[in-house]
## 1
Amino acid sequence: MRTVTHNHETLDHDVEQARDWFRGRRNLLIATHLRPDGDALGSVFASTDCLRDEGIDCTPYFTEPLPDDFQNYTVSGTVCEEDIDLAPFDGLLCLDCANENRLALPPNRSFDDIALPCCNIDHHIDNSRFGHVNVVHAESASTTELLATMFGKLGYPVSPAAATSLILGLVMDTGGFRFNNTTAASFRCAADLVDGGADYTRVMHSMFFNEPMERLRLKSEVFKNLKFAFDGRFVYFSLTPDLLERCGATVEMAEDLIDSVRVIRGVEITCRVQQVDDVTRFSLRSQNPDLPILEIAHKLGGGGHLLAAGATQTSVTFEEAEAQLLDYVGELLAR
Ligand SMILES: [Mn+2]
């Protein structure tokens, strides 16, 4: 299996570069993608814990309030929704973010004008390698799985709290080890993290047995209004502020609804079309490795993983978005 060997060698090389990069840093700003999910948050919190233990000051930075579900996982010194003085920092650590345009950075700052040495650690296959040092490994089910591997190779101890954050990311990006990005390495990683004191019970309870009634109401409305096409192989639904309001639900509650819909028998491709003001967000999933919906996301101007991707467009009506989507999905299914 030459590719596997090659990937391991590349990963070892990248991790060595990261080792040198961390050695030269005293004070890091840690950032992730906009609308952070469990993997993004788990990556930021675990890295903060771990790197602080290595004597590096760390400031986790977010541009928006953290989703309720994840409030209990935050670390001290987290900065949310505020401007921040960048002068003290000597490095920018970017986690779980495929390119510099998706980064949640301090207001009115672009990646270029921040101009800090940057280390980019991620598992998206289409990562643009925008850092000075890049540890990109698409075979990892989550960025936290990659971080766990990396911290192991670097010999950085992982505290129980950091292990909990790492398993949080792994659990969320694999949908509780259900999605087909789950590998033997994911299970080994999870087992090692539980050995290391990760609170798996707490993660599973807070993520899967703790649904607010408003979300279930929203789910039931979404299921009532699903649209099917191509003999049931494609299912999609729209989310509007109106619908959220009627259910008393928040945007964050709608985040993983697509994973409830993709379980329907016979469905191969799933899409959520979310409209807020002038912005339309597409979230796409495929159940079939031969139907890489990443291609559709790219056509819509977005990106992601082969079988889980998304895109954002402005100034399109739902009807236009729908027509475009049916076109692209039809082409993919016809292959
Ligand atoms: Mn991820």
Note: The two ends are 28 Å apart (CA to CA).
## 2
Amino acid sequence: MLRRIWVLLLCVLLLSACSSVKKYLVMLPPDWSGMLKRPSVGGLAGVYTDADMSDTRAHDLALAIQKARRRVIAVWGSVATAPVLFACSTEACFHRLGGTTNTAHSLGDRRIVLSPRGLDAGMIAHEWSHAEMYRRIGGLLAMLRVPRWFDEGVAVLTSRDARHGEGVWRKIRARGIEPRVGELRSRAQWSDAVHRYRDPRRNPDNLAVVYAAAGHRVAEWYARVGRAGLLHVIARVRAGEAFEPAWRALSSLQLAGADPDPKPVGAPAL
Ligand SMILES: [Zn+2]
């Protein structure tokens, strides 16, 4: 036991010394994070905030978590994961937990970390969807077969976040700056595209071009194949199939539960 504690303490010291892996510190026991434990809500395994977060803001956060859970259920049908959520009311807290200029991030199906800019139902549902995808598809190795645009597109659909929504997509179309979503497979391709589309000469309003485009592509597909289609693709990839054939096969399949009539693009009703 003592040896395990020493090993964990050594890990903490090593991780603290390297900023690029700082975000993995939250994978340690949550009580070691130095964050304040709050009452858990929405089926999460734990909710932690910085001590500076006011009780009013923590109350609003609890409501946002419950709303986010309903959004996850609306797209996924149920909730299979119970991550621990760390919510920061200051940028200093977010940086300490490994955040940068991003709004939020998740670690597998175990942790969600929010910046003060992401304390809302949309961002929580977005990160929770990533956790659902990771768990249901079978973890890290299977996730390597999932293109980034698909994982992000499902997260955008689940979130209903206006920052990545259909309104943004229409502006992108009007300006003729749609990215080729299907080419954004790897994390590196995705990050590179997000960076390139931040160029103010190309995108003066700083629209979330890449997220909105991935969200639109998945929403359009989901409107045709429904939840049954989503779960079908995930089951095939989980069973070892490559993503593309599983995705393509859907167009010729009559799925149980899928509505053959086209629906408006967007997340299903809550
Ligand atoms: Zn995401």
Note: Strands lie at 36-38, 46-49, 84-87, 104-107, 111-114.
